Every structure is written in C-alpha cells, then in structure tokens.
C-alpha cells in the first residue's frame, strides 16, 4: 500500500504554525530613562499609608522603606545587576506587562527583608504578585550572597591592628579583636519537621546566628544554620572559627606585653554563656567581686555590648529576622540570614546612618534567659586575672 500523501492544505497549515512558533512575544523593557519611575510610583502610593509614620522628606522616606540611602542602593544594584539580568526574566512582569528593572527588583527584595511583611503586602506596595515577590527576593539573595562576600571577612593583620587600637582606646582592653554574641531566629515548623533540637529553651522553634563584630559593629565572622536547642557554648565548638583558634590559625597575631611583664594574646570578649578560653575572655561571676574584678567587668561589658547592639541593629533593620518566620525552608534560611548580615555591613562600609528608630529598642533576644557556661581554661583564667590587675593598676 502506498504511503499516505500529505495534502497541500496540511503543508500550508504546518508552515503557518512553525512561523507562529518562531515569533517570540516581545515584552517591552523599562528603558534606562525611566528607571526612577518605580520610586516615584511607590512613593506616591505608600508615603501616606494609614497607620504608618513615614518621614515627609523623600530621602529619609527612601531609607525608611529600604534602610539604605539612594547612593548605597545604587551600589547594591551594581553588585547584583549582572546576575539579575543574565537569568531568564520569565514571570518578572508588573501589572502593566513590562519587565521589572534591576532597580525595582532590588527594591522589592530590600523591602521584603526590611519590613518582614508578607509577600502579598510587599507585592501590593509595588503592584506585583506574591509569586513575583518570592522569585525576585530569592534571586536577589542568591546574587548578593555571591557578589558581596568581600563585605564580610576576617580582617588582615593591618586592619586587625586598627581594630585592636580602637577597642583599647574605647574600652581599655589591650589586644581585644572583637566581641561575640548569638541570637535566635524564631520560626514555625510543620509537624513532620519538629524536633527537640530545633526547640529552644523558651519553647520556640528557632535557628541560631552567632556573630563576631569589630568596634564599628561590623560583622567579621558569622555562623548560622544550627538548631536553636543548642547552647551557645556548644554552637561555638561546632564552628570553623573555634577550630581555627584552637589550631593557632586565628587570633594568632602579635602578643601585647603589659607594664608588669604579663603577655596578653589576641582575644575576643564574650558573655557568660561562653567558655573562658585563652582567646575568648568572659566576665567574672557577679558574687563577691574585688575592686579590680568589678572594674574589669565594667570595661569588658562595655566592649561586649557592641555585639549585642549589632544584633539589635541587624534584626531591627532587616525585620524579617525579628518576626516569626512561617515554615521557612531550613536549607534556604541560612542564606537569608547571611544576606541580612551582608546588608548590615554594606550600610556601615558605605557610611550610611540608619534612621534613629530602626534598631530594636530592647534586647535582640527578648524573653531568653542568659545561659551560663562553667567551662574554664586555666590559661584563660590567667589571662583574665592579668587584665583585671592591669585595670587595677591604672595602666
């Protein structure tokens, strides 16, 4: 039997179909000349929202919504621009059918992180859908996590000497390289994912964030991703920072010799929840302290509070960290936390000043009692005694 012969009509229809498929739908991209339009539209729509005390000054209003000045905003855009425009923009379309500019994508992501509001609320403020907010925010997080690494790194020896000098000038602590603290990022979890590991001492499900900061409250080292049920002393021992210090590869700079001949190695200041180690100095317990011990504790506490204030600032600036997260992906949450810390550092590095009402007014971990670690290293005890004697002798 001869093969079936295709009709001329079917050939013509096939040709038309191929032609239609070859023509892609062209979506107009917002031109560079109108990149500021998103802000004008956003400002008109949101500057007088009921129940929201937005500054009347437009520059202050920009900081209110996005936590950064316009100059810093442009710098952040420059970091992620290549990543945001190199990926397929499918779905990133506003209600007018135009592709979202890089600037508008960054604004959406910053607003989501800064406010902690729902994706629906953030989308309504920008005229985009919930799924767009979700996609844009995650694309931004992935890009900044990769492109802003240089804003969060351990200092080189020259920078560390500057940090030590500032700590000594401000708090009298010789050879102090930073302050350490930890905070809980609270979340809800599906029943199938709940476990005692993630349930912290206050019966919240949470993830820990530990950070070491310098004299300007800039994060020098962070670790996150660990369950909130851990103590901070146990968390410390699980970190790469602990292993580096114990192996002599960190906090291993020049030794400071005090007037009495005692050697003080590099160290960081931590609270009573941490072990007393040669490179991590904690305060004396508050019972029956001598004058020298009390003086040391006061100086130590002033330095340690830099880390406490840094966490109050990062959780106040990027309020997504201060709200109860609804069933977050625990694999993605560390990236969200890291990017908020990177943004915190970028604000400092760019010389931005936060609006006065941004930082949390209280402690960054309200309701959590202070943990107490009894582990004492003899060399750490000797270091602390030498520092206390140094203060008592008035240098």
Question: Could you characterize what this model shows?
Answer:
- The protein has 13 helices and eight strands.
- With 395 residues, the protein is an alpha/beta fold.
- It has two domains: 57-150, Cyclin A, domain 1; 152-394, no CATH class.
- Strands 1, 2, 3, 6, 7 and 8 form a six-stranded mixed β-sheet that branches. A two-stranded antiparallel sheet has the order 4-5.
- α11 packs across α13.
- The longest helix is centred in the last third of the chain and has 27 residues, at 291-317.
- The termini are far apart.
- The model is unreliable at 1-9 and 17-35 (pLDDT under 50).
Q: Layout of SSEs?
A:
Elements: H1 8-22, H2 37-46, H3 58-66, H4 70-86, H5 102-115, H6 119-126, H7 130-147, H8 157-171, E1 176-188, E2 205-213, E3 219-227, H9 232-237, H10 240-246, E4 256-257, E5 263-264, E6 267-269, E7 280-281, H11 291-317, E8 325-326, H12 333-349, H13 378-392
Helix pairs in contact: 4-5, 4-7, 5-7, 6-7, 7-12, 11-13
Describe what is shown at a glance:
With 395 residues, the chain is of the alpha/beta class. 45% of the residues lie in helices and 11% in strands. It contains 13 helices and eight strands.
Q: Could you spell the SSE succession in H and E letters?
A: HHHHHHHHEEEHHEEEEHEHH
Low-confidence stretches: 1-9, 17-35
Total number of strands: 8
Average pLDDT score: 88
Total individual domains: 2
Strand content: 5-15%
Class from helix and strand fractions:
alpha/beta
Distance between the termini: 109 Å
Radius of gyration: 27 Å
Number of helices: 13
> What's the story with the biggest beta sheet?
6 strands, mixed
What form results from the Cα inertia axes?
globular
Helix content: 40-55%
Protein name: DDE Tnp4 domain-containing protein
Keywords: Hydrolase, Metal-binding, Nuclease, Nucleus
GO molecular function, one term: metal ion binding
InterPro entries: HARBI1-like, HARBI1_dom
